[in-house]
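Provenance and format

Records in this collection were gathered into a single text stream. Each protein contributes a sequence line and a token line. The two records reproduced below are adjacent in the stream.
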Amino acid sequence: MHELSIVMSILDIAEKELAKSNAAHIEEIELEIGELSGIDMQAFDFAWQQAVKSTKLETADKIVTHIPGEGLCMDCETVFPMHELYKPCPVCGHHFITLLKGKELRVKSLVIN
């Protein structure tokens, strides 16, 4: 379950930012997670619930923005939604695709007090 290691990295980021600001409490954390990032959201949520216990994030509101997958066909230049990696272009059928969105995994913001 790599979701637990991801959650632990997010906790580490949040705690370092909290220490930098000399604040005592994290009110909110906003995350961006792409559809094609490989994150199983059910496993992520379970790992989150377990990992944040007794941390500064335990009472923080967690906001997750899901980024849909989007690809660009390098042959016909069609931009199209992608729900899976390695799918061909729906217009021309070629596999030479550039991923435009959907692999994101980032801490977008922290509200600290």
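Adjacent record:
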Amino acid sequence: MIRVFYGKKGMGKTKSLIDQANQLVSEGKGDVVFIDDSSQLMYDLKHEIRFINISEFPIKGHEAFLGFLCGVIAEDYDIEGIFIDGLTYIVKEKTENLAGFFESIRQISEKFNIKFFMSINGDSDIAPEFLNQYMQ
């Protein structure tokens, strides 16, 4: 399952991600990972959530980020949910160029039974068509 929170800055996407992550770790049976490009949100998350500040790693582009995610999953087969705040800031690419990335994430999600939650800044009136199936 993939859920995308897509909209303009200031619409509460990050708050929704935090709330969902905290809820999943409370109600779920597996591990939860939260990925952001700074440590600012770390203290808003329950301590059981594995927080990763992606800016500490030399990730450039969606392919490198996909490899990073696969490494995180390979290290911990108990992951139930992965939360990614600000996907386009992390991969430094435009949303419309990420259709292949989302197809890979869909396959990973199905194979390993992992829920992916992501926030992306953008105008929801002109969101890329491939995102419609994942949007909140």
